[in-house]
Design a protein that fits this description.
The protein is α+β, with helices and mostly antiparallel strands and about 160 residues long. It starts with a helix and ends in a 17-residue tail after the last helix.
């Protein structure tokens, strides 16, 4: 009787362990998140690019914003971690001077420090997020206003 009871306890323990291992294995792909592996700057045919290589493709193009003073581009990569040992990476591509990466709260923010204001566009190419910089378009953002006549009156 004791041997049978001991066997049931061992069998129950093994069943629980097997069930837990199967559940863990099934949820592993869902828990995996992209990891930033490298960042580089380049120039191709007069176009400047910053490439952010990840361990796997992003689910969607991340949101970003421009800062005018000092000129910067900030990109937030949700559910992404950072494999860099250093926070700051110097670039020599021209418009992009350096890149800072900071991981916090389940996301990584990538900040590209610019030599001068520039517009940018992002696109995903496989496991790489590419920022294409356009410093020329940043100077064309001003809207010319002319021939406005202001008069004071009752209305």
């Amino acid at each position: 009787m004791k041997a049978l009871r001991k066997m049931n306890i061992m069998g129950d323990w093994r069943t629980r362990l097997f069930t837990f291992a199967c559940a863990l294995a099934a949820s592993a792909p869902a828990m995996a998140q992209p990891v930033i592996q490298s960042i580089s700057g380049s120039r191709q045919a007069g176009t400047e690019m910053v490439s952010i290589e990840l361990s796997e493709p992003l689910k969607q193009i991340p949101a970003g914003f421009l800062v005018q003073t000092p000129p910067r581009i900030a990109i937030d990569l949700p559910e992404t971690s950072n494999a860099f040992a250093q926070r700051r990476l110097q670039l020599s591509s021209g418009a992009a001077k350096s890149v800072n990466t900071v991981e916090s709260g389940g996301r990584t923010r990538v900040v590209v420090d610019l030599a001068k204001n520039a517009q940018y566009r992002t696109q995903a190419v496989g496991n790489t997020l590419v920022l294409t910089l356009d410093p020329k378009s940043a100077t064309n953002n001003a809207v010319a206003v002319s021939a406005i006549d202001f008069k004071r009156g009752d209305n």
